[in-house]
Amino acid sequence: MTVNLNTRIIESPVAVEIYISATPEKTLPLQDQADQLFTALWNTLRSKKAHILQERIYASHESIETIRQARSKVYADLDDGVSPSWLVGKEGTTGPFAGSQVYAIICEDKPQVITIDGKPCGRMLRTNGHTLLTLSGISAPQFTQPTDQARACLEKAESALKQFKATFFSVARTWVWLKDILSWYDDFNRVRNEFFTERGLIGKDSRQSMPASTGIGLSSADGSKCAIDLIATLGPKGSPQFLPAVGKQQCALDYGSAFSRASRAITPGTETVFVSGTASIDASGATTHIDDPMGQINATIDNVRAVLADMHCRDVDVVHAVAYCKTTEVEKIFNSLKGDLPWPLVTTICDICRADLLFEMEATAVRLGMPYGTR
After folding, report:
1. What is the arrangement of strands in the sheet containing 3-11, beginning at the earlier edge strand?
2. pLDDT score, position 205
3. What is the pLDDT of residue 83?
4. How confident is the model at residue 368 (pLDDT cuts 50, 70, 90)?
5. Torsion region of 206: left, alpha or beta (phi above 0 gives left; psi -120 to 50 gives alpha)
6. Separation CA 174–CA 326 (nearest Å)
7. 287: which strand partners?
8. 111 Cβ contact partners less than 8 Å away, ≥ 6 residues apart
9. Which CATH number is 3-368 given?
């Protein structure tokens, strides 16, 4: 079987967390790529009796249905009805199917499926004093205007949290998928800023409790202008914690974007560090290395590593990473450099949030048995 499968297993007395990054062999036809990739994922998850908590699939629009059918056929009894996030980008060097990432868990307690308006959209896990909530592909395509969709997505996510007497203060990490991002990113920021201000996450008397986040030019397969994934930790008390400014970059709110550069949360038996989508931006918020793909790639990796270092994480602690490249030409340059980067990667092609940005990265890292304040 020709699948590039990178599995990171984090064991603790409480639970075992599994992070998988899977990319297909680029020489195979799409159907074979999908069949082999999902078979490899099924074998890994089934053999370990693991439950999926969150899943993302990166592919071109034309390939989604073939991939969807392959996943449905292979997964069978692993499928609890919660759809993965189907993320549409442009075709890259591996072809129309860029890959998949899965976050799963092994523990005595089975995740509970969360529904909004009768549709499965996420999972809640309670185990040994830990409470973890994930949502995937929250969208509102019934609205015409992108800003109305964005507001509705935030409110739908909030309604799921309220089912468990939680608020956005529990949200450690968001991913915001924005179709045609360059045409309305400022408008999205306005909507999010207003929502977070109303909820008290930002403002004059706030601790600036903004989740770590990625806002990127991938679109949901349902055609929505906006879709949201998130991870929230509802227990134990004191999780999550937010780092508005960390590494080499200052608070993104200074230039109007309401997210923290990183957050950390206590997941079952583990401290997890979420590094937001990071690009070639300096401390003042200005884009650097304009029209220089290699310069932006190197600066971005350096910026991500600076955040990880401040969070006392090393390269080997990274369990998931995504590289967002504006074009296949940028991807080829990144591919020539990534051999020295020991992070489990999926690479996809899409627009970044600024016209002069060519590259962006995010990372998730874990440190077992390292609670806050012990480093």
Report:
1. 3-11, 16-24, 97-106, 51-59, 85-88, 219-220
2. 67
3. 96
4. low
5. beta
6. 21
7. 281
8. 51, 53, 80, 105, 123, 124, 125
9. 3.30.1330.40
